[in-house]
Design goal:
The two termini are 31 Å apart. The chain folds into two domains: 4-26 and 73-288, Rossmann fold (3-Layer(aba) Sandwich), CATH 3.40.50; 37-70, no CATH class. The protein is α/β, with parallel strands linked by helices. The protein has nine helices and eleven strands. The chain has a seven-stranded mixed β-sheet, sandwiched between helices. The chain has a two-stranded antiparallel sheet with strand order 1-2. The protein has a two-stranded antiparallel ribbon with strand order 8-9. Helix 1 crosses helix 4 (96-113), helix 1 (4-23) crosses helix 5 (133-144) and helix 7 (180-189) packs parallel to helix 8 (229-253).
């Protein structure tokens, strides 16, 4: 098993440094998003972003006006890693939990390096927000440690009790547990990004003969004939209905949404997160796929 130190070193070399080269250190969109404090509304200047245009002020004055924001000096980032049994599933490059862990640690590493504080609710327990490089190593150690089997709803409610001041929350889960009410309560108070972690086999069966399935949540087991086209089509319909319901539930909650597959590379995923977050202040939640 990879040690916490080796995991962080690999992520710095393979993810954070390439991302630095592509973004030139500009991570503002990830960390601030819609939590920017509105400073003023002023006339449009050449070079201002079109998405910052304030249409009510423009209509009122007859001239283009834009919203200008003041960045918060220090941001608190909270990570929630869902450790439910379904997150231990994976058929391609990694388990869903491994992808969620690597994505969370990469964002935490960058946030800490920019002087922010990071806290986390992990299967192994709660880490209060702190800054510094030591916090990144502690996050990795605790995330790799076995923990209690807490439902997603319970985790979301617990995070709501401990995250008292407005923060950026990064929730990484497959969202198979009931979540919508708890997520909506968090989204009303915080800047919330929901990362829906999924595996290709959860969406479509391969033509691979008789397959045995085991439900880690309930212990139920079943065998299906994946060579039967009707079986594959029924599986796809149920899988798509489940996925659509989770996506729509996240959107209704008011959270920003990122879809993350176990077959994806981390750098493109993080670039997608940056681009989504840069557009987030003036747009309704959208799905990245």
């Amino acid at each position: 098993m990879e040690t916490p130190e080796a995991l962080l070193a690999r992520l710095e070399l393979k993810v954070v440094r390439p991302l630095d080269g592509l973004l030139f250190g500009d991570y503002r969109g990830v960390f601030y998003g819609k939590s920017l404090e509105l400073a003023e509304i002023s006339p449009y200047n050449p070079g201002d972003e079109a998405e910052r245009i304030d249409w009510p002020a423009t209509a009122r004055t007859g001239e283009l006006h834009v919203r200008r924001f003041r960045e918060e000096r220090e941001l608190t980032l909270w990570l929630l890693l869902d450790g439910s049994p379904s997150m231990r599933f994976g058929t391609r490059r990694r388990e869903k939990y491994a992808l969620a862990l690597e994505l969370a640690l990469s964002v935490a590493y960058i946030a800490l390096r920019h002087g922010n504080r990071v806290g986390a609710l992990l299967p192994g327990g709660l880490l209060p927000p702190r800054g510094g490089k030591a916090q990144a190593l502690l996050l990795a150690r605790e995330a790799l440690r076995p923990g209690e089997n807490r439902s997603l709803g319970e985790s979301l409610d617990l995070l709501g009790r401990v995250a008292r001041r407005r923060s950026l929350l990064l929730i990484l889960s497959d969202f198979l547990d009931p979540f919508e009410a708890s997520l909506a309560r968090l989204a009303a108070r915080h800047d919330l990004v929901a990362v829906l972690v999924e595996d290709p086999l959860e969406r479509a069966l391969p033509e691979a003969g008789v397959l045995s399935f085991f439900d880690p949540e309930t212990g139920a087991a079943v065998e299906v004939n994946a060579l039967d086209r009707r079986v594959r089509e029924a599986y796809w319909r149920r899988a798509e209905a489940s996925r659509r319901a989770r996506v729509e539930g996240i959107r209704r909650s008011g959270a920003d949404l990122l879809l993350a597959s176990t077959e994806a590379d981390l750098v493109p995923l993080l670039l997608q997160l940056v681009e989504r977050r840069r557009r987030w202040p003036s747009r309704a939640p959208r799905v990245s796929s």
